Amino acid sequence: MSLQRVSLVTLLYFFIRSVIQFLRQATNLLPAAVIFFAAGEQIRQVIILLAVVGLPLALLLHTFLSWWYFKYQVSEQSLHIRDGILKRKQLTLDFERIQQADVREPWYFRPFKLAILGVESAGSDSKEVELAGLPVARAYQLKEHMLTVAASSNATPVGGKAPTESTAAPAQPSFTMRLPLSEIARYGLIYNPILLLIPILIYPLSQADLLDDYLMPQLEALSDSLLQYTEAEYAWLGLLVVVLVALLVVVLLSVLLSIVRFYDFTLQAADSRYHAKSGLFSVTARSFQYVRLQRVVIQQGMIARLLRRVSVRVNQTGQGRAQQQDKVFFIPVLTSQRLHALSNELNLETPNWRGVHKASMIIPCLLSVLVISTAAWLISGFAWNVVLHALWISLVISLVVQWASWRRRGVFLGSHWLATRHGMIGQQQRFVPSTKIQALTLRQGPWLKLWGSATLYVYSAAGREAISWLPYNELVELRDTLLTRSATFSGRWM
Amino acid sequence: MMPDTDNIHMEDALADLEYLHVNPRYITQLRIDAGINWGLLLVVALVISYFLPTPWLWLSLGVAALIGIILVIMLSFWAPRRYRLTGYLVRDRDVLYRTGALWRKQTAVPVNRIQHVEITQGPIERMLGLARLIIYTAGGSGSDLAVPGLPAAEAERLRAQVLHMVAALSSSEHIEDRASE
User: Fold this and answer.
1) pLDDT for the residue A159
2) CA-CA distance, A140 to A360, in Å (whole number)?
3) Label partner for A463 (CA 20 to 30 A): which of A86, A143, A323, B140?
4) Is A445's CB within 8 Å of B103's CB?
5) A324 touches chain B (CB under 8 A)
6) Residues A434, A485: contact at Cβ < 8 Å?
7) Are A441 and B181 an interchain contact pair (Cβ–Cβ within 8 Å)?
8) Residues of A in contact with B105 (CB under 8 A)
9) What confidence tens digit (pLDDT) does each residue in A434-444 have?
10) For residue A301, which phi and psi values (nearest 5 degrees)?
11) Which fold has domain B16-22+88-180?
């Protein structure tokens, strides 16, 4: 097969890409805007003409040329791409070294049944390539093919499952999970990005004196007008209603966002490969291979606990870092029943948590008492009676908080997994395959030595787990077990 | 046996193992490092004292004296103790390293997780003929195992040994995999 161009509709994709590229460059040129204001009338007219006529023309030309020079070729074993208008790029990706392949169906492609195939190669200098404008069926087929080649190129995967290699059509899914709309709406309640924005928004508002100069007079006028014919309590009731309505709007928006992102969330497993697909307008698909799994994180925040739901993240190599978070395989909301099914599917063990020493509370407690009391001391203008009150109040609060988080802390080593748990009101459980440990570090300072303990840092390819406040002998034993298991594990670990 | 490979003992399970000492010149390296760091602080404190008015002079001189005492402790007690407690061991399936005079640290890396091996030499290390062997894994920064204070030739030999072990292990695994298919 020779080099070919992508479908003409893909001009849309290239146009959006051009605009994004332009905007990125434009922010660098922002200082040049000074010319516009400083220059004379004639130059200003030229600039306006350029902006209104020249810029759209340039963007369109760039779009067309990008599309014209973008060519690709798919062979049995590799993907070859040529890209670039002036600076030409040629890239060959061997399917063997592909770490991840995802299909996206953005809203503007959906009427044309087209998709974007995103491919990421393994290695520290991971290259990311997007092949846009493939027919949806072809994109999924190509992704399947790539991942099959990637899986079969390496040694036999070990790690709980032995997949059957088939070069034929994708196997029938052995496990399917579909999240109903009601569950996805719940995720909007659990994870509330707009609610998180409020403190960020309040800060500039408070800085700008908007509250004092604008909002308060308005509110006062409102309450005055109410006061004219009602009692004072009624005005407060009105204010309460306004706040509640605002909150309701925020929550509704979050629910909507959640539905847009996770609509029709479907998780399927076939041949120990997992695929998840979701989205209302733009459909995103993610996948991972069981052999490449490095960590499973089960997360439950405060609201999630009230709703009795959890979220699950599955990390692959290097995905512990923050900038990789949007590529993580994520299941937004699970009932205990669904979590149970998924845990079975992933071969997670039910942990029998080992608690840690109570002395773990001492230092955090003392630190928070110190910080709160010092703050009280400074704010009150060095008034000793205030400090005394701050001391006992902060001590009580810190004790309660530390006791709550001490109760949640736990470690578990099963026959295949190492699990840790922490949290205060909510909780987080992390499962790391005990055969895939990268390095183990045991640290002991004077304080932990005094209590006969140490800290064991367990490095997996997805990040670091810290285990403290177990008896020293137990930690040493844990270290030795993990080391032996990983060192004698001869299967594929990534 | 080289003089710098005495046996040292630890109080735990990996402990019955005999860690190898690094080169005694490592003490000199530690002394120079500590001398530069704390010596610079001492100079800064003294310079500040010179310019300060009398009431503050005593405070700043006190700080300088404290830095001086720490410097003496680092040079006389800390450097030899840290050297004594620094050791490494290359076994069939893993590489071990331990260090720390007061804050003790032991690191273990399974051979089948080693990504690559590096030798580095700073100016002071080059002056003393020492090198640092760094073993990288896929666990990100912090999970690397670095053995300092090795004679340059010994570092080269150790790197070759580790790389040979990695290669041997992966080829034997390959054979196992073929057999199981």
Assistant:
1) 40
2) 51
3) A143
4) yes
5) no
6) yes
7) no
8) 441-444
9) 999 999 999 99
10) -85, -170
11) PH-domain like (2.30.29)
Report CA Rg, chain B: 21
Pick the residue from chain A with its C-alpha nearest to B112: A487
A164: CB partners within 8 A, 6+ apart: A171, A271
The residue extents of the domains of chain B are 16-22+88-180, 26-81
Cβ proximity of B155 and B133 under 8 Å = yes
Which tokens hold the place of A331? Answer: 């299941």
d(CA B50, nearest CA chain A) in Å: 33
pLDDT score of B4: 37
> Taking the alpha carbons of B108, B111, B113, B118 in that order, is the dihedral positive or negative?
positive
ipTM of the complex: 0.85
Using a CB-CB cut-off of 8 Å, the residues of chain B touching A464 are 139-140, 142-143
Q: CA of A405: how far to CAs of A296, A364, A400, A423, A469, in Å? A: 21, 11, 9, 6, 13
Q: Extract the residue ranges of chain A whose pLDDT is less than 50.
A: 124, 155-169
Per-residue DSSP letter, B19 = P
pLDDT in tens, A24-69: 888 777 777 777 777 777 888 888 888 888 888 999 999 999 999 9
CA-to-CA distance for A355 and A492, rounded, in angstroms?
A: 32
Q: What residue segments make up the domains of chain A, in order of their start?
A: 4-70, 193-261, 358-487
What is the structure's pLDDT at A233? 62
Residue found by looking up tokens 């005055």 in the block: A224
Interval B48-89: pLDDT, tens: 888 888 778 888 889 999 999 999 999 999 999 999 999 999
A133-156 CB burial, b ≥16 within 10 A, e <16: bbebeebbebbbbbbbbbbeeebb
- C-beta neighbour count of A169 within 10 angstroms: 8
- For chain A, the C-alpha Rg in angstroms (whole number) is 29
Top-level class of domain A358-487? mainly beta
**What tokens appear for A247 in the block?**
């909150």
Taking any CB pair shorter than 8 Å as contact, residues of chain B touching chain A are: 12-14, 93-94, 100, 102-113, 137-140, 142-145, 173-174, 176-177, 180-181
Interface contact B94-A483, CB threshold 8 A: yes
Per-residue confidence in pLDDT tens, chain B, 181 aa: 333 333 333 444 455 578 999 999 999 999 999 999 999 999 999 988 888 887 788 888 899 999 999 999 999 999 999 999 999 999 989 999 999 988 999 999 999 999 889 999 999 999 999 999 999 988 877 778 999 999 999 999 999 999 999 888 877 765 555 444 4
Which pLDDT does position A157 carry in this prediction? 42
Is some CB atom of chain B closer than 8 A to the CB atom of A157? no
How far apart are the C-alpha atoms of A112 and A171, rounded to whole Å? 27
**HEC per residue, A35-100:** HHHHCCHHHHHHHHHHHHHHHHHHHHHHHHHHHHHCEEEECCCEEEEEECCCCCEEEEEEHHHEEE
Q: Which residue of chain B has the CA closest to A473?
A: B12
Strands A89-94 and A78-83: antiparallel
Nearest to A459 among B105, B111, B142 (CB): B142
Mutate to test the interface with A, among B91, B96, B113 (most CBs of A within 10 A): B113
